[in-house]
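Section 5: illustrative case.
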């Protein structure tokens, strides 16, 4: 049991050292945080965090894939995105003490680490370097959000689909075959369009051999062309 705990802590330390909001934290501080961490496991389709919930603690994805969206009253989940990158996924809401904008579900078996929000904020109050690094991280995220909004307003549907496919490819460790089964309905919900509209555009990707789509399994056949297709016209 002790060896498993040490392995989990070392894995979490590596994630935190690569996470931008923790870059200003000293190794000593990170090790102190990790000593107080709680770990939770979730089965596929299990609800992890709920929309409008105010969460006091910081959740970090250790393994598995998160499904993010809005759970409807009829029990249907409108999928907005997937997260597989091992990182913090509720940081802004914790910092602002605001309700979550999304429902978070486990798309596969998921493991998370939970850091006390009060402990994290206490570090920021006494460590100016850590606080400054968090401010820089938030400013970068805000800039990227503005850029993303501009892209959504100006890109064609074909460009948006291509960019989403590139992002999925990058999220899943640059594997040609994306190890995530998606129905066309689930994929269409990411763009707020009908399955029929999506299918019409996907056929262009398939017929030109940019991707293959077989029973919900996506295979990237021509990544460079897909990246070019995702770029805004000059």
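Designed sequence:
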């Amino acid at each position: 049991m002790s060896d498993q705990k040490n392995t989990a802590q070392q894995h979490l330390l590596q994630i935190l050292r690569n996470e931008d909001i923790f870059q200003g934290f000293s190794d000593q501080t990170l090790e102190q945080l990790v000593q107080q961490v709680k770990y939770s496991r979730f089965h596929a389709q299990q609800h992890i965090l709920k929309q409008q919930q105010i969460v006091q603690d910081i959740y970090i994805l250790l393994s598995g894939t998160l499904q993010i969206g809005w759970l409807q009253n009829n029990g249907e989940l409108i999928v907005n995105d997937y997260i597989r990158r091992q990182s913090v996924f509720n940081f802004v809401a914790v910092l602002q003490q605001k309700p979550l904008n999304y429902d978070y579900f486990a798309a596969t078996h998921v493991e998370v680490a939970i850091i006390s929000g009060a402990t994290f904020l206490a570090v920021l109050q006494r460590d100016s370097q850590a606080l400054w690094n968090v401010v820089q991280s938030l400013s970068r995220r805000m800039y990227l959000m503005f850029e993303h909004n501009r892209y959504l307003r100006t890109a064609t549907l074909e460009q948006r689909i291509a960019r989403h496919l590139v992002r999925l490819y990058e999220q899943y460790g640059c594997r040609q075959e994306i190890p995530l089964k998606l129905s066309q309905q689930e994929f269409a919900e990411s763009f707020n369009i009908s399955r029929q509209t999506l299918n019409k555009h996907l056929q262009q990707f398939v017929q030109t051999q940019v991707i293959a789509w077989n029973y919900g399994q996506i295979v990237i056949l021509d990544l460079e062309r897909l990246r070019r297709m995702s770029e805004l016209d000059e």
